[in-house]
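From the shared-data thread, chain only:
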Amino acid sequence: MVTHLKALFGKEEERGFTLIELLIVILIVGILAAVATPLYLGYVKDAKTAEAKTVAGALWTAVQSNAIATCGTPSVVSNGYPKAGLDTGGASIDGRWSVTGGGNSLTVNCSSGAYSASPNGAALFTIAGVTTDVNFVRVSLVYTLAGTPPAQLQCSTDGTSPTVPC
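Structure, as tokens:
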């Protein structure tokens, strides 16, 4: 019986992997890691930018809601902080994001429904990362009356002022 098994599986000395086989496997794993790491880091950066866009979207919705409610009267961005889940200073509850431009305003004309922002053509507000894992992300909402579309998110992932549409 033992000789029959030896004939099926080969000699006893031929167990395990050769050094060349192990080196090839390590080389393949290394190549996969070298390709996957930059892709993964890009996905992480995109996810953090999407988080900032979510905060900007919530604040924009709150600012529009307040401007419609005050119809014809300028509504200050900072009045939308509570509806957007921000504290009175414009920081997110978890402390990861902070808002600048809280003194700017949006006005809705009741009869025409037209928006006007102060300042026009510049950032109405900017969301900036505060903690070290997101401090390179900036998202601004720029409202330009003559723009198409008039409201546009601009993003930056290098810590500079956003100028590129998201």
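The helical segments are 2-9, 19-70.
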